[in-house]
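If your schedule permits, I should be very grateful for your opinion on a structural question. What I wish to show you is a protein chain and, alongside it, a tokenised description of its three-dimensional fold. Would you kindly read the sequence against the tokens and tell me how you understand this chain to fold? Here, with my thanks, is the record as I have it:

===
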Amino acid sequence: MSLPDAPEARAGARIVRVPEDRAGQRLDNFLLGQLKGVPKSLIYKIVRSGQVRVNKGRAKADRKLEAGDEVRVPPIRVAEQGETTPPPKGFLAAMEAAIVFEDARLLALNKPSGVASHGGSGISHGAIETLRALRPGQSLELVHRLDRDTSGLLVVAKKRSALTELQALMREDPSVKGQRIAKRYLALLVGRMPDGVMSVDAPLHVGLRQGGERHVQVNPAGKPSLSHFSVIERRGGHSFCEVRIETGRTHQIRVHAQHIGHAVAGDAKYGDEDVNRRLREQAGLKRMFLHASTLEFSLDDGRVPYLLNAPLPAELSAVLDALAG
């Protein structure tokens, strides 16, 4: 609810009252919904600088809002952040065609490799911004994220209740009565994985390199991380696998694969540059061979099951065909 007589409103700021269906939402995510197209980095900046107020007081980005809270939303000119044009028509059409499932609560996208989950850090149009441009007026929120170079299932909530329940599943929150979310990927691992099935139980720690780049490594001080690799078939001396992860750590599959000596093919960060070059020349692999293929979960305390699938992209199928020759 806007309060036009407030001094902040006359200066261009808005006072927004938190509706009941947004109770429990973090402040940063609430602001992302209010300031469409604004990069997340800018959201954090205006919160840290005190331009955002909750009930007239300063607040942190991770504050959980309550129904009726009054949030001061400062004026942000999105055009100054490079968001001067809507997504190109061709990109809009490609993202519309990439939707593999939709109902009243959820939308699932088979995200192409090279598309960021959300804008920011020099990226004007991520998946969520493009979907919002396709569905103006709808409330769309990312349930989770995929690395930019990973293709596959990206789930977007259309209702606050679905967002809350799915994020609890992602966090393995015990309040969701033992329900789990099953996440399966398809990956080409470099070399011949010695066993048909291998589990990797190795803690992962996220560090920052100079320039702010995230780099993850196996480290006893890290968070518990568990991945299960199963070979589907051997192709050209490499291992085409299904990977099931029980935790959702940053770069988990990529670092666990590197840890066992069989990096994900085409992985520029954790892989082997010479092997990647040979696969590019011999099999046409121009991207990382990692694809989020399946998500299985239930909503409404286990009463409504979902099984979402995203087919392997044509460019990755072509690599497998080339390796079989």
The radius of gyration is 21 Å.
